[in-house]
Amino acid sequence: MSEVVSYEVKDSIGVISVNNPPVNALAQVVREGILKAVQTAQQDDSEAVVLRCEGRTFIAGADITEFGKPPKDPWLPEVLTAIENSSKPVIAAIHGTALGGGFEVALACHYRCAIASAKVGLPEVNLGLLPGAGGTQRVPRVAGVKAALDMITSGKPVPAAKARDMGLIDEVLAGEDLEAAAIAYAKDLLASGAPLKRIRDISIDPATVEPGFFDEARKRLAKRARGQIAPDRIVSCIQAAVELPMDEGLQRERELFQELVASPESAAMRHIFFAERQAAKIRDLPRETPIRDINKVAIIGGGTMGGGIAMCFANVGIPVIMIEINDEALERGLGIIRKNYGITVKKGKMSEQHMQSRLELISGSTDYGDLADVDLVIEAVFENLDLKKEIFAKLDTACKPGAILATNTSYQDVNAIAAATSRPDDVLGMHFFSPANVMKLLEVVRGDKTADDVLATAMKIGKAIGKVCVMSGVCYGFIGNRMLGGYGREAQMLLLDGCTPRQVDSALEKFGMAMGPLAMGDLAGLDVGYKARQARTDLPDDPRLYRMGTVLVEMGRHGQKTGSGFYKYDPETRARLDDPEVESLIRKQAEDLGVEQREISEEEILQRCFYPLINEGALILEEGIAQRPSDIDVVYVYGYAFPAAKGGPMFYADQVGLKNVYDKICEFRDRYGEDYWKPAPLLKELAEKGSSFAEWAAQQK
Ligand code: 3HC
Ligand code: NAI
Fold it and tell me: What is the spatial distance between Cα 333 and Cα 21, in angstroms, rounded to a whole number?
């Protein structure tokens, strides 16, 4: 048929096989191949057709690399029409993941069967898109309107058995030999005289949809949309499935799909999709770098981070031992883990049995002697360099040769920690984000002496526990926290200049940040930053710097935990409330410092908070701390809830234009001084050349 699609009649069943590694994406050659195969099957003596895939998965979607390029015939809808109009039953045989356009191909078939381990889903929303080949019209027809809305707006794949219960597939096949089982299934269908079932022929009774259902859904989704328009358009499509005939519904879906493909949100989210996969690749690490076996892990310190990290490993079946200073601390740490799992069980997201099997994998000890058989240690004790060095010296003695020794430090020098051992090549940073069992980001910090296989193993185990790994070099705060410095600083400076906390946070939340920086400070505890600042000797001697944070902490307002910080918090609902006392306090502080307050636009708030991130990002690139600008974007989207619909700070900078960013930074430098606003040489160079971070990255390859 074509180089990637073959067709053969086996035992009177025509078998179409797609073979387009790695994920059988629907590239033009695949679409063409399937179309030709279906046409051929109409002419031969086959009685039914099975559509299956080689390799690790059924078709995982449209070829995302083709978006934004001129379309090439045949279009996917044309292929789907040919399948649907086939005079012989076409049966999709699914393994791996049938996603996006892949699942839409299956939905156009007359029957769908899958092996038990398969999953089906429409994840387009994660790319700022909607299913553009009938998914929004066919899923509500088989699974109902509510289930369709949940599935398509969440983008979450559904396991085979559940998919069958929802009506998304017809049969879960036993065994792993999919082709043979699918042929047998096809023959059974023929023998029983099963009709040519076309989902398009099902109509939805509008009376089954509650009045106001779609308006309600729009409102609910708008709250968590964070700059994304796709969820809203998905609601419109599903509404069309209820209100319009199939062909008009498909037409509506196509129009809205085209709108989304051309949207900046989708471009940004597609950037993040590829950025995430790029980040996993370390340029100077040979492909054949060996990986060390990780069968048992130890966590040193069972506090906020240690507990969450232990859960990450137990969740994938790896035994963990947690080391604490005494029995009381150990019991507290293990208790928090039990409580966290308990909450998940209560919410119905985990069975009691699953919780027990995970808890059984987590043991505790106060004796470093119990570390002799572990393959990986992650240290998560207090943020104190001397303590960490002391612990690494102990680990050096307690752990077997070849064990990987990692620190979860947020700021300390990984090279200095490594130097406390006789094996610095086994040492690196594995910097998790809080809550560690939830947040997707893992910064893997490569020390000067970290061995290649240690680095490769950390990246691999990070992926295995469900994290998105980004490599960072050693510097104060690594990629993410180092960049954050200027962001938090400016949020507070803006208060003295005339903003209320609400104005600052709202501008950033409207942009799509999950939470503004001042509200975030209240959540994390203002005392944390206060203590960290006291330990620093490199900060400029400027009374304006972090003034409000300092004043509030000294008044006992430490944030949510004390009921007040930049805001006050309703003791019952925990709702964030504006506090006129803080607003007059800010005015008083500005007056004392001689800062003239003024009206500040939302645009300036965004520039003042984000441009320091971008500038520091440019320095990080120049210094080689991050491999690529897109790695920085991944850090911010997965670790700091920067909106994916804006693509991360470096992608955003390219959209704004580096010349505009640079000019504004120069303007702020002239207004506020070089201590805070010093344009990075790389930013200056690219701005002057009219270039972008993306172009710079392309030249580094
Ligand atoms: N198009 C192009 N390339 C794709 C792709 C796609 N749909 N899906 C994955 N790839 C590429 C990845 O970029 C990666 O390339 P690389 O090796 O050069 O980095 C390679 O395939 C392997 O991908 P993963 O590393 O993600 O492999 P995993 O095994 O971890 O995961 C997967 C496999 C679950 C299929 C995952 O790749 C995935 O979720 N893919 C995207 C699925 C998706 O979003 N589909 C919808 C596309 S939009 C659409 O279909 C529109 C339609 O409605 C018209
Ligand atoms: P924490 O204070 O909640 O927990 C630290 C734990 O270490 C305590 O339970 C303490 O008893 C234990 N401990 C101290 N000395 C020990 C020793 N010698 N042996 C065994 N256990 C010992 O601290 P948290 O927040 O969990 O931070 C731990 C590390 O993780 C720090 O380096 C921090 O910078 C880093 N980190 C923290 C994040 C956060 O948001 N809290 C985020 C990312 C990293």
Answer: 45
